[in-house]
Amino acid sequence: MNASLKTAMVALATAGALAGAGLTQTAAPAAADTRYNLPSETQRHTMGDGTVVSFQRVRERATVNPSMGGTPLHRNAWVSGKLVVNLSKEASRIEIYPGYIVGCQVNLGGVTGEGGGGIDETGALDGAEIGTSVTLGPGQARAFYLVDAERADDFGQEKHDSRITYKKKKRATLSYTNSQLGLRGCAGYAQARSFASVQVETKHAMQTMSFYGRPFSLG
């Protein structure tokens, strides 16, 4: 099963009222976008029952530009990439929680680790939220998910899910294209870093692992 996520943002500007009043509106010079092509990575982890989990992050890229707010406190990035999970044997269930960590005046290169650190029993990263925009001050960082899938729970109520699930598979792939990251309130340097929490359930074991990408600057 392949999953593909696509998001887009459309910005509208109006100047008719100014023209009608005899006023003119001058567009500010556009700041150049900064583009990153991040290196592909392969990471491996062996579960307790001997199942080998190979995680690949490929074609990850980001385009960073100032937002239409026009101040250093506003930055936007559009990110794309592909995640591939390969197992040495078939699993009854594979779940992928893709997301990004955004930090204001924080070195995200210190975020490392494979295994269960910071992961709760559902496979979710502790403190992560569903959404694409965060407000941060100096020294703060926040993780959030790219997936916002709506479905009904056991009581018929709407539920938002941050994972994609694959059943009875040895391989799972997930692609996302032009997902938006928005940062507000950070006057200093800022970074972002991709992560994926992967939960694998086999006949004899269940384990959640977290894999991290290469940090990149948001300006």
Automatic annotation (TrEMBL):
Pfam families for the chain: MspA
Residues making up the signal peptide according to the UniProt record: 1-19
Key words, A-Z: Signal
Entry keyword Signal: yes
Name of the protein described by the UniProt record: MspA family protein
